Amino acid sequence: MLQLFGKRRWSLDPLPQPWGELKSIYAYLCAGGSDPLPDEQIISPPNQIRWVGGAMDGVLGFQSEGDDKSKRVFRIVSATQRLQQEADGRWLKNLYETIIENAIVGCIDVVLKELNKSHSNTDRLSEIGRYLAVRAGHREAVKFGLALIGVFGTNQDSDILKTLGKHDEFTVFAAVALARVRENPERDLWEMAKLVRGWGRVQIVQRLKDTGDPEIQSWMLREGFRNEIMNEYLACICARAGRLHDKLNQQPVDLSVLDAAADIIRALINGGPAEDIDDYEFAADACDRYVNIVWSRNDLGLRHFLAIADLSQFLEQAEGWEKRMRCGWTELRRANMHALAKDVLARERWRELIPIGLAANDEQGFYDADQAAEQLSIDTWAVHFARVKSSPLTSHSWYHLMKQTDDARIGPVLAFVESVMPFTEIETGPSDRLGLGTEFQAHQALDWVLQGLRRFPGRGWRIIKAGLRSPVIRNRNGAIQTLAAWPRRSWTEEMRNTVEQARDEEPQQDIKACLESLLSGAEIT
Hints:
525 residues; mainly alpha; 3 domains
């Protein structure tokens, strides 16, 4: 009867999809997809810096959008209200295009607040949320859908939230929504946290900091702080939630707890963007117990050598102890810890473990061994040269190789570089390329070599020349900085002519100015 009077049931299903042929992100993740997401080429065109999943929201998302924020909020709220009043393709297209024009995180809280107080049709708003979360092909639209579900959805939407929350790009939105639609969301958040390793884990573990669940506390202590961004973000939270100082007092101490203690203590000492060792109220107790346990054992790996080395350096600091005294860092306690630490570091066992770690296929094991070797002034030049030779354009050893190269070693290194570096592919002329992605592996290796050549005036001109002719901005800057570090007497006529040609062809004005300064002998900043 309603259709006889020109009315139809409100539904988004028959409307044209404003994302066109772009694949549904939800369907893509359900099918096992990960990175890159279907809209990657749209949001990260070639030659632009790509944010890892969730990074932009985690780092920049809550900064103000300035004067345009209120305008955007108004546009989104208005378009959403029009769409929930009438399921029309024009309103859907308008809403969608407004959402995806910029990151939604900066204004989503205000949008939701306005929609909440506008007495809108909550059933239709939840349906808009599901529609965008499940079908949309652009990530910002999916996030907007998740946000709507969080406010207007129900417990029945949990599976949608959990599926999208498995990807770091959506974890924080899914977690916030899940916390609203579920009566007791802690376990769901924990399960989600175990599936992500980047910004998603950082965001969820921060929300679990006050958990009273023993299983979650145990996981946070042993594993929850580990992430692909920085362990420093979560080390203090997890030490506190898992009561690290208490666990180190248990007899015997579980090896997984001891390994976690090593990594947590290193992160706390290193500090950074979050709470550090001065924020953990039981740090003195935990460190005291840890160093005593390591001192009493002779069966631990190099991660514990590195943790004790960092702790020893921390204890040797000259400042800050007056304030720390109130938290248990007494002079006697520090002196005892430092004595035990020095005893541990002096053990011959570490020197026996280093060659084993350097020969291992395990990257973390190699990294620990390499760090330990540096602490003990053990020369690993030959090891890094062998790794570079086995994979010249993808090896992570270029930096360490060049760092340990001296006058007696630079000859073989340069001969090898000139034999493997694809100069023809590199010397395509200056452009604005950032040099990101696998197609620029040779350019990335060139960066490390150029940096190392600053200590060897007159050596490696063929490599520097390639840097000046590279399309990658970073390479050209590296070549300029290397030449600037050389005394002018080491320059040849060919070098000067090449630099002049590079200046004349350079499209980037700041680099052109550096080349001009290089030619004039002025200081380059």
